[in-house]
Design a protein that fits this description.
about 150 residues; 3 helices; single chain; about 20% helix; 4-stranded mixed beta sheet; alpha/beta
């Protein structure tokens, strides 16, 4: 199997099978690769959203834990950039049980964003581009900040 050049985060769950079903229902991910052992136990999964991949992993040693084992603490925020309606996406995630920690809001850089936690406490940021903003305009919107570079 060829691996494309890019970035692929891995998210660790206590119950990866439940997480896979939840990520499909809440965010619209699709399973791209699923590996199980002879007994039907979970081994590995890769899920796709558009052209991006994310790995779903199982806790396997003391260094790889779900937030459930860390009193809800996280060391990452995973962002999904979507082409569609972020408000509708938020409602879909809420209906699937996501804890919405920040309602959809348009940011100074031209994206409409909401943040949520999943069934095991991982933090997610969902973003939709709604306005083409120049670096200069963004700097004017956030007085006191200097922006170097611009994507």
């Amino acid at each position: 199997m060829a691996h494309p050049i890019g970035f692929q985060p891995s998210v660790i769950y206590q119950d990866p099978k439940a997480a896979i079903a939840w990520l499909e229902a809440a965010f619209g991910f699709e399973t791209a690769l699923y590996i199980e052992d002879e007994a039907g136990g979970f081994v590995h999964c890769q899920m796709r959203y558009g052209g991006a991949l994310i790995s779903i992993g199982l806790e396997w040693d003391e260094d790889f834990k779900s937030p459930l084992k860390l009193c809800g603490k996280n060391t990452q925020l995973t962002t999904i950039n979507i082409p569609g309606d972020v408000d509708a996406h938020c409602e879909r995630a809420r209906a699937a049980g996501a804890v919405i920690v920040a309602e959809p809001n348009t940011q100074f850089y031209g994206a409409r964003v909401y943040r949520c936690r999943d069934l095991e406490g991982h933090n997610w940021s969902i973003s939709q581009a709604v306005e083409d903003v120049s670096r200069e305009a963004a700097e004017q919107r956030v007085e006191g900040m200097k922006i170097t570079g611009w994507i």
